């Protein structure tokens, strides 16, 4: 019988490419990962791995087993969802991931709504960049997370992860000391998020689409800090609507751009019907501001 925990390790190896990366993603030691994969090969009775330098490649049998593993894990999530429906009331921990501007502007109201409807749920929020969400979901560190994509940085499908339709859509703004276009800021210093984040990729591609490579002066993830730096003449930046909560500082002009950021809820494949995941998604829908496509007060 194949061990499901070892199958998870094989699935992660297919995504990460090295045993060290799998160990880091799942908080194991590299030797423990190697031992478990060797045990899985013995269970399978055929070679699943072949080493090429520091990387480990999967054999055709290993790749085929990963495909079956994805289906098995999705069915297990579905089974877990059905069992949760059979219980009386929602209770226990719900591990939520969210990017910083949503954590500040949307998540608190959603948590209040969730607590009012399901007081037995213990929501626990962790700030995480969308680029790291898939690995955290597959590792079981999160149950549901908010992720976003930009017009210039569409989301790539992630094995083992499902997403909802967009929960809300935000316009993007050029933040500068005066109105203008992105192309007109080719000679200005730029303030961008840390490399490796979707926000950094979006700003870089927006500048490239305007015909130039930006000169990056500051690398800052918090949009409040970004706007404060723009206000004192330290550069220009691209900021989404949630990042402008409370309005810009004096001296900063926000010029709306024909670009958008869309936010979705992500969870493990097969978990869409889990009552806790569905409850959190419903709470999010109910608190999205009307200007971002949320429900309108008809009273």
From TrEMBL:
GO MF annotation list: DNA binding; DNA-binding transcription factor activity
GO annotation, cellular component aspect: protein-DNA complex
InterPro entries assigned to the protein according to its UniProt record, in alphabetical order: LysR_HTH_N, LysR_subst-bd, WH-like_DNA-bd_sf, WH_DNA-bd_sf
Short name of one Pfam family: LysR_substrate
Keywords: DNA-binding, Transcription, Transcription regulation
Domain of life: Bacteria
Annotated HTH lysR-type domain residues: 2-59
Family label: Belongs to the LysR transcriptional regulatory family.
Entry protein name: LysR substrate-binding domain-containing protein
């Amino acid at each position: 019988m194949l061990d499901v925990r070892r199958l998870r390790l094989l699935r992660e190896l297919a995504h990460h490419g090295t045993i060290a990366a799998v160990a880091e993603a799942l908080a194991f030691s590299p030797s423990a990962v190697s031992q478990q994969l060797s045990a899985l090969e013995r269970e399978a009775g055929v070679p699943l791995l072949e080493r090429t330098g520091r990387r480990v490649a999967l054999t055709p049998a290993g790749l085929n087993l990963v495909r079956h593993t994805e289906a098995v894990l999705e069915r297990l999530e579905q089974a877990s969802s059905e069992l949760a429906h059979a219980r009386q009331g929602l209770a226990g921990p719900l591990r939520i991931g969210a990017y910083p501007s949503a954590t500040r502007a949307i998540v608190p109201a959603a948590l209040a709504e969730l607590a009012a409807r399901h007081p037995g749920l213990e929501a626990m929020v962790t700030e995480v960049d969308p680029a790291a969400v898939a690995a955290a979901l597959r590792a079981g560190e999160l149950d549901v997370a908010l992720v976003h994509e930009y017009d210039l940085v569409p989301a790539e499908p992630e094995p083992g992860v499902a997403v909802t339709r967009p929960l809300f859509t935000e316009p993007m703004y050029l933040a500068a000391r005066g109105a203008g276009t992105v192309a007109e800021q080719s000679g200005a210093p730029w303030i961008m998020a840390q490399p490796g984040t979707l926000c950094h990729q979006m700003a870089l591609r927006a500048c490239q689409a305007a015909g130039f490579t930006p000169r990056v002066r500051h690398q800052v993830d918090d949009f409040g800090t970004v706007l404060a730096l723009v206000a004192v003449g330290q550069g220009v930046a691209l900021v989404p609507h949630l990042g402008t909560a409370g309005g810009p500082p004096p001296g900063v002009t926000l010029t709306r751009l024909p670009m958008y950021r869309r936010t979705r809820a992500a969870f493990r494949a097969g978990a869409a019907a889990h009552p806790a995941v569905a409850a959190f998604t419903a709470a999010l829908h109910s608190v999205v501001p009307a200007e971002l496509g949320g429900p309108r007060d008809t009273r």
